[in-house]
Amino acid sequence: MTSKAHKLLERMKQSKTGWKRQDLDKLYVGFGFIIQHGSNHDIVKHPQYPQLRTTLPRHNYLARGYVDYAIKLVDTLIEMQKETRDE
Fewer CB near the terminus (10 Å): N or C of the chain? Predict the structure, then answer.
């Protein structure tokens, strides 16, 4: 995870509207997620934590719910990584 991804996450937490698909792509990739093309949506999953997954539409502008879920998913990843390090 890069410092750019952390900064983007913090900005998304402050304002959850007006984000584009490319912003979520940067966030997910910055935290190590892989984006695969599906039939109607793209599938986002983490290689080390396969239970962390979601789908993204291919439109440019996204509903706030996609940003909310992205924040939740990345926060869950950070917690899981902390737990793994503490073991």
Answer: C
